[in-house]
Amino acid sequence: xxxxxxxxxxxxxxxxxxxxxxxxxxxxxxxxxxxxxxxxxxxxxxxxxxxxxxxxxxxxxxxxxxxxxxxxxxxxxxxxxxxxxxxxxxxxxxxxxxxxxxxxxxxxxxxxxxxxxxxxxxxxxxxxxxxxxxxxxxxxxxxxxxxxxxxxxxxxxxxxxxxxxxxxxxxxxxxxxxxxxxxxxxxxxxx
Length: 191
Ligand SMILES: CNc1ncnc2c1ncn2[C@@H]1O[C@H](COP(=O)(O)OP(=O)(O)OP(=O)(O)O)[C@@H](O)[C@H]1O
Fold this sequence. Notes:
Blueprint: E1 12-20, E2 53-59, E3 68-69, E4 72-74, H1 81-93, E5 96-97, E6 101-109, E7 115-122, E8 125-126, E9 135-141, H2 154-162, E10 167-174, E11 177-185
Parallel strand pairs: 1-7, 6-10
Antiparallel strand pairs: 1-2, 1-4, 2-3, 2-9, 5-8, 6-7, 10-11
The structure holds N6-Methyladenosine 5'-triphosphate.
N6-Methyladenosine 5'-triphosphate binds next to strand 1, strand 4 and strand 7.
């Protein structure tokens, strides 16, 4: 899938999709939010009524600003992708992800930025997500994502990732519109 891309020469970036179920497994030992209020930094969930939720950020700046996206960012020199995703989630929303697992990878090409994006899924974290200069976090039900305000290609792979599947993809954008979309699911997310 990436034969045409000199992936070793592309900048690397990460994304984290934190999934919090209603089984009490995730979180920091505190009760999950129980008032159902959106944007309280707590997943709904310990009343058995809600399904899984995932943490998205409304990005205030940088690539993809003004959209909802998983927390993440660019890999720094000398850093592994796993170290990057842990650092970026801490910087952007103030929590520590404890069990990030790489579940996907995609090559992104556009008019002004190319990258290899490493996608992680996590279910365990410590702390409470908080708004920062970079990001406004909010929990969304996995079956009610704000897809109209996300990268268009997220809809191709994010439901698979939230379902625990792996994927590889290649997305070419021009004028903020996808021109080429290739995806394989159920494959090792190597690179
Ligand atoms: C179809 N294309 C895409 N779909 C979904 N997400 C995408 C993406 N292309 C880039 N991304 C993510 O966008 C962030 C950029 O990084 P960004 O936040 O600008 O970097 P970083 O936090 O290091 O910021 P500074 O450069 O220090 O400002 C980073 O998470 C990266 O994975």
